[in-house]
Amino acid sequence: MNGxxxxxxxxxxxxxxGLLFLVLLYVLKARHNISxxxxxxxxxxxxxxxxxxxISDKIxxxxxxxxxKVSSIIIKSKILSDYGKSYEKHITYDELExxxxxxxxxxxxxxxxxxxxxxxxxxxxxYVKVSFIGIVLSFLIGxxxxxxxxxxxxxxxxxxxxxxxxxAIIIMNNAFKSGMSIMQAIEIVKNELDGxxxxxxxxxxxxxxxxxxxxxxxxxxxxxxxxxxxxxxxxSLTLLNKTGGNIVKVFKSIEKEFFDKKKLNDELKTVTxxxxxxxxxxxxxxxxxxxxxxxxxxEYFNPLFKTQIGILILILILLLxxxxxxxxKKIMKVNTYE
Length: 338
Fold this sequence. Notes:
Number of helices: 13
Strand content: under 5%
Shape: flat
Distance between the termini: 60 Å
């Protein structure tokens, strides 16, 4: 290990120790304030309220304060502000007043900083030179890892909405048959249905109460969920609003269309169940074989990670696997109405 690396590691260690010292000073100051508060509390009358807060709640409060502070800073950037708007569709109705899209960017930035610090500390204790590329990669991993969970939840939400949209249409159609308005029908849906579909209809009802038109409200609904069935409803309501017509007949036709689509999709899922199993099995096979080889010989894959040619081969393998997934998915795909 040369002198340059030792000096660099020493500098990093001093920085980390300095940060830990600042944290220690903050904790000592907080303890001093708490002791003063306890000292003078005997001379004050406290309300009969349980002020005990669990450690997890304290951590969540601190994280919330950090996210709020970061959001107040980065919201001034138009690029980050516009980027944050793409996350607003993931906010539930109950969180609209507490959270905004920019908060997601703040959380991503904080995670990126945390993973970068974790990388630096790990390298420091291993006495390995800290590289700029490593810091950047660790930051990017922390920054984008939350998107994986967000997309998983978003897909679950879209599936729930797709499954429950027919129920909403039936309720609205029955409301129209009773002589109710669109606003009243939407209010019934938001009160009767739970889950993702109920949450979205609460947002629709809120938008209508702000004075937005039916076309704009359902267009916003489509932009949030990106479902073709919602686009079909939006187009039908737009034409109905512009040309006029019997809303009961229109929604009866929509209800019948959705019912036929759901019935056809259920039949297709039954028919293609074996193909789906084969598709998933083919995706797992390469990983199963790699795991089996690694179990028998842990050093077998070392050349792939320790040589330049091995890294190039590894990149080529990943590209071929991606192509393999796309081809198999295309072969197994059956066009449905989803």
